[in-house]
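Submission sheet (multi-component)
Chains listed below:
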Amino acid sequence: MTGNRGVARLLPGKCIGCGERCLQSCPKDAIAMDAAGAPVIAPERCVGCGLCVRACPAQALEMTGGAGAVQVEAAANSVGGDDFSAWHGVWVVVEQFAGVAARVSWELLGVGRELANKRHTDLGAVIIGHRVEPLAAEAARYGAQIVYLLDAPVYASYRTASYCAAVCHLVEKHQPEIVLLGATGQGRDLAGAVATRLATGLTADCTGLDIDERGFLLQTRPAFGGNIMATILCERFRPQMATVRPKVMPLPEPLERPSATVVHDAFAPEEAFVAVKVLEVLRAQGESEGVDIAAADIIVAGGRGLRSRENFALLRELADVLGGVVAASRCAVDAGWIGHDRQVGQTGKTVRPKLYIACGISGAIQHKVGMASSEVIVAINSDPDAPIFQIATYGIVGDLFQIVPLLTQHIRALRGEAISA
Amino acid sequence: MMRSICFGILLALATGFFVWGCRDRLRLMLAGRSEARWDRLWERLRGVVVYAFGQRRVLRRKFGRNHFIIFWAFMVLLLANGEFVASGLNPAWSLDFLPQALLCPLRFLFDAVSLLALLAVGVAALRRIFFPPDYLASRYVGARSGEAFLILGFIALLMLAYFILNGARIALGSMHNASWMPISRMAGHFLGGLSPRTLHGVAECAWWLHAVVLLAFMNLLPRSKHMHILTVIPNIFFRKLEQPDLPSREDFSSGTAFGVADSKDFTWKDLLDTFSCAECGRCQEVCPAFQTGKPLSPRDIVHNIKIHLLAGGKLGPLVGAFGEGHCSGEELWSCTACGACQNICPALIEHPGKILRMRRFLVEMQARFPEELYGFFENMEQRGNPWGIMPAERERWAAAQTVREFVAGKTEWLVYVGCAGAFDSRCQQVLRALCRVLDAAGLDWGTLGNAELCCGESLRRLGNEYMFEKMAQENVRCLQEHGVGKVMTVCPHCFSTLKNDYRAYEADFEVWHHSQVLAHLAQSGRLRLAPADLWGKVLYHDPCTLGRHNREFAAPRAVVAASCGQMPLEFPRHGEEGFCCGAGGGRMWMEESTGERINRTRLREGLALAPDTLCTACPYCLIMLEDAAKDEGLELKVRDIAEITAQALQEAG
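Outcome: structure written.
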């Protein structure tokens, strides 16, 4: 799927006159309805987004044409066009809190390095904050060649207005071709605001980034509930913006001899222009001691089948040898076997680890929706009809009190071999 | 003469003070928002006869008989007290002008009901002192409250003064028809030894005691829970006639505020409700939230609105804070919308609607709701189902069978699958069982497949009226576009929403619950059923939305009877008084971390009957009760009536 997918077309005789679903779905008002309630598509307005094709309950619409078939008029204030020769550099906007950078920012510098190499351009890091100069050296260690540093009291706490203004200022001044941000709470907020202000495209939650033969950024992300991978291009606007979730990209090895140019920029909006004031920063309760299961790569989860609080020790052992964390279904939490911060499901947390081992969890829908998009699901349950097996990658029917210790033992043995070898 | 003047002045003062007290409250009440409650006068009057004079709801509890006696004593003695007041102003104004044939029985009646009332208040006082039921007390008013005893004392004093006064008169020989007044005559017998002078003094004292207590009683009314004596009859007259009681729609034009933030934002009828509460506590006795240790008591909600209203803005916001005169989020989010409180209330107070509108304020004006609901609201908005599953997966439940598409003008029945039926693997089994039964009966049915949306019931109960409105409009349009004439649902929540809530959106289709369809098919002989042995003793749980809200008690039981060969066992609380499974009112999507779990409480209630199978007719109840059975470590089978029917079909071969 690319950004240039052609124009929507009505297949003759298939429209059921459902009542303007395509018309309502069209973001560009390219669809009008005729007297029979069938759509009339204005090709000059269609941007090929395909929303109407999806909205149509009768599969009466399709996309035709393809690359080059569409002419998009750039908005007057946008930086759209076809000549992007002035745009250079790959940037990573570094996220920091109280002078400590988010790990995802350094991960992005890793992938940013590869992109910059392919484009034969520089890798830049944008650091915004107050008293954050030490971060410049750290960014350099992770590969940044230019560090744009905006250090002012107005940036002491993250606020959309001030940070957005700062990033937009830098982008307009230096014209980078690619801007990457972490798909964290802050990053998602900032990326959306910046992309809107600059009238450019933004692809959220990318799982892969690459450069095509024309030098454009290929942004790959799951679409349609993870059923397909979509590669998205931003062909007509600059910068090309993307966010990536934490732990999707590997952390690069720090450079031994880092060297970077630090560009100090004095730009700082007046405090009076930032409507939001940060009065106090409160930490979520239990955050300091608890584990964030949503960020874990490996989760060993237990349910009703565990039967008691003590039995969770089995799972903890398995989690320890795997380097993962322990989570639970609702009933285990309700029974008081484990804290609510470990609950996965509809009323708990949604997790997407690389490996999810479900022990004694039947897989009721309330739990399933919290973990179904895990990469690999291993289910251990004594009931062969348990719904968890419908979504499990690997299912083990049997007594978890036998299987889990065996599993722990085997993995420990494998680890031991690996270490001794 | 002197007495008439003194009494006249006292009466004028007391009446003035009484009117002042009433006017105050009446004005507060009329400041509420408008609401039309004047339609169907005849039906309204009939309700007054049944619920007020017949005391139907009062008599639903054993002790209600006591209230019945006091109520009717009051009614009869209204006449006696009218005579008392009139003759106080002018001794010539009495009932003595009536013909003897009428007067004599009347005097006897006065005497008899006075004695009954005296006994009844004695019993009531003893009950409050020695056996106060839990539900009499709430957070703010105790069972042994001074006010309760004051009122009982007043009534007792009135009756005693009446007997002493008449006794003294009889002893003096100044009472006509004394032979018709056995109790007073007995009192006269006791006083017989006194001198006429003393008797005059006794009569005078008794008269003044009666007069003062009567006027004090009158003035206590508007200033206490005994206001209900004045307000319950109008409250019953203005009751909601629709069954079930549907939430009102919101006006979403710009500039309007949504929900209820302040006591004054309620309608006049809501405020009349608060003045009609007699604090009997039956609502909290049947409330699943209160009974399992949640912070909610329907009685407190009504009480708090009244306190807030009377404080006239001195208490700050009504919704949010906790304490007397406030309704906190914890209380409001605890409600399961089961409707038991409204159904039991002898004064026909409408509690759930009030809770709902305060939820709307929290959701639509303040965006303050339990954390778990963020995901729920988002899923509903983006994916049209509570779990956020891809709409393209809606058809998957039918995996083993071919999906039967509903064809406009051809297919007779639309099976509205519902989100649970489409996505929850347990409820999918119910759907498949239902399909087998429908096919065996030769019914012509189809589904909307992936075009179906959630009915939005939970959204509405959770106060997200805006999203509900959008989904309701879309659903009605979708169903009408498909030319749907008859809809069948497996979920009572879908059933009630399509059938009742959607009427406001010009829905014109016929809606059946699958229990009704199955009962109909079984009774008309279109299904060949042979009872299966494997179910053992079957216990039936009434889903609130099907039973209490939609009065469908018979059909699911008939289905069980047809499929099992006998009527199901009943929970101690069943039918109209069935107890919630804990998932209604959007509670399905929230954590239940305070107190006992409602589903386990419900399950334990039925365990004394030693059932082998627990049967119900609602996906929510099925999920909750099956969960409870697992939590309790029981081998109990929990089934939907469709599964039981499918099994009976299989047995029949």
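Remark: Residues 67-79 of chain A have pLDDT under 50 and may be disordered.
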